[in-house]
């Protein structure tokens, strides 16, 4: 069944989502918090450390948002990959809280070898109506292109000249996707060898959103002084899958209002590209 273009523009009804400190901690552990410097990240991984006030990682909205509940085509889930991600924070989220979420299908683009489906979600404060955060997610469905749709804009991002200001190395664990999936993404592509093989992989791959969360932590510490209130927006494109147990190397070039970045695995293959971090209030 081809992509159903009639879903473009579809918006869900508002739904209230809630979270607590334990869920925020589980997400933090799922994206590696505490694995490099446990003391520095106690505020993300504990709720009762002496003199430490619990905080929420800025990329946490990715796992509390609601997905679009209307099908946009009949396809094998194993052939759908996380292609791009953007998150924008207007306020830092508390460890215990709620938000009203509206999700939407923004576009379906024909990329030839597949279809790029872009979703958005907006989080507002139920009491005041203030926008707390927004996300934009692109999913690439392999084999579903060629239907004659708009290809979308061409990428124009280029890496800066010169050596990066800092390179952050982060080690993922072989069990990383088994922990991360408890935050909500139970796609068996990341845990079941048979499903992974059906998707063309020799073993389960790490969730793209997990890789994104690892890199978000790297940027938070290396660029923003570990201050969640300085985190404004982060966007990037997924260039290649990461296998559990691989090491991530994020090259960061600081700018006047944030940073640009590229993440590679230990072989030098780019896994997250066209990265941009913007400090809150800077743009």
Summarize the structure in words.
By secondary structure, this protein is an alpha+beta fold. It has a single domain (5-279), classed as Hotdog Thioesterase (Thiol Ester Dehydrase, Chain A, Roll). The chain is 14% helix and 33% strand. It contains 5 helices and 10 strands, in the order E-H-H-E-E-E-E-E-H-H-H-E-E-E-E. It has helices at 21-30, 42-45, 176-180, 193-198, 208-223, and strands spanning 15-19, 80-89, 97-110, 114-124, 131-142, 166-171, 231-238, 247-255, 258-265, 270-279. The chain has a 10-stranded antiparallel sheet with strand order 1-3-4-5-2-7-10-9-8-6. A hairpin with a 2-residue loop joins strand 8 (247-255) and strand 9. It is globular and about 55 Å long. The relative contact order is 0.17.
What is this entry, summarized?
By secondary structure, the protein is of the alpha+beta class. It has one domain (5-279): Roll (Thiol Ester Dehydrase, Chain A).
Instruction: List the uncertain runs.
Output: none
Helix coverage percent: 10-25%
Provide the gyration radius in Å.
18 Å
Mean pLDDT: 89
The neighbouring-strand order within the major sheet is 1-3-4-5-2-7-10-9-8-6
What count of structural domains?
1
SSE topology sketch:
Blueprint (H helix, E strand, L loop, with lengths): L14 E5 L1 H10 L11 H4 L34 E10 L7 E14 L3 E11 L6 E12 L23 E6 L4 H5 L12 H6 L9 H16 L7 E8 L8 E9 L2 E8 L4 E10 L4
Antiparallel strand pairs: 1-3, 2-5, 2-7, 3-4, 4-5, 6-8, 7-10, 8-9, 9-10
């Amino acid at each position: 069944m081809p992509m159903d273009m009639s879903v473009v523009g579809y918006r869900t009804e508002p739904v209230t989502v809630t979270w607590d400190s334990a869920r925020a901690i589980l997400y933090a552990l799922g994206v590696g918090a505490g694995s490099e410097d446990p003391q520095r990240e106690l505020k993300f991984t504990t709720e009762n450390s002496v003199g430490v006030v619990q905080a929420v990682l800025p990329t946490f909205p990715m796992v509390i948002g609601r997905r679009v509940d209307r099908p946009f085509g009949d396809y094998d889930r194993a052939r759908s990959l996380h292609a791009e991600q953007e998150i924008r924070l207007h306020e830092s989220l508390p460890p215990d809280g709620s938000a009203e979420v509206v999700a939407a299908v923004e576009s379906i683009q024909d990329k030839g070898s597949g279809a790029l489906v872009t979703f958005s979600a907006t989080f507002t404060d139920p009491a005041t109506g203030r926008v707390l955060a927004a996300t934009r997610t692109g999913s690439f469905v392999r084999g579903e292109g060629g239907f004659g749709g708009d290809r979308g804009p061409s990428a124009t991002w280029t890496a800066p000249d010169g050596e990066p200001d800092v390179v952050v190395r982060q080690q993922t664990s072989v069990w990383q996707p088994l922990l991360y999936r408890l935050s909500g993404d139970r796609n068996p592509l990341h845990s079941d060898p048979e499903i992974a093989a059906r998707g063309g992989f020799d073993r389960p791959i790490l969730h793209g959103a997990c890789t994104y969360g690892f890199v978000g932590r790297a940027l938070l510490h290396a660029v923003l002084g570990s201050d969640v209130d300085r985190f404004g927006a982060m966007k990037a494109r997924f260039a290649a899958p990461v296998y559990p147990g691989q090491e991530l190397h994020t090259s960061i070039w600081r700018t006047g209002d944030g940073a640009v970045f590229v993440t590679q695995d230990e072989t030098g293959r780019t896994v997250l590209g066209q990265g941009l971090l913007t400090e809150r209030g800077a743009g």
